[in-house]
Amino acid sequence: MRPMKVVVRYKDGRIAKGYIDRFDAEGPFFHLDKESAGGLPLWMGMDELKAVFLVKTFEGNPDYNERKVFYKSDRDLGRKVQVEFVDGEMMQGTIVGYDAQRSGFFLIPPDPGSNNISIFAISRAVINLHDV
């Protein structure tokens, strides 16, 4: 399995970028190999995190105007929801098999051109989730 390129956002606003080989969504932590190679992997405790973003590139495309909401013409590829995080950020996406008792859930952004491939939202960092 190829390492996944991720951007990790903490609940307190900090950000870490790097690679993960294995991601256990129900585990209490995972290892992040920092973007700048050469250091030891960081232990990422799930209880400190807001979300883990699986990304195409670390830089993104600052000239791209990402669509953050659904269009009526979008195909239904899951349950369309809006998520509100503890820091006030709101995000729309599709989810499949949501269970509030799990440690988190995967959210697929509405824009296929987004730099975010998918987002693992940590349940403890979500204060509201509703259908759109």
Short description:
The chain is mainly β. It has strands at 4-10, 15-20, 29-34, 42-45, 49-55, 79-85, 90-95, 104-107, 116-122, 126-131. Helix content is 0%, strand content 45%.
What features would you highlight for this structure?
mainly beta; three-stranded antiparallel β-sheet
Care to describe what's here?
The protein has one domain (4-59, 67-131). It is mainly beta and 132 residues long. Helix content is 0%, strand content 45%. The protein is built from no helices and ten strands. The strands form two sheets. A seven-stranded antiparallel beta sheet has the order 4-3-2-1-5-9-8, with no helix packed on it. It has a three-stranded antiparallel beta sheet with strand order 7-6-10, with no helix packed on it. The mean pLDDT is 90.
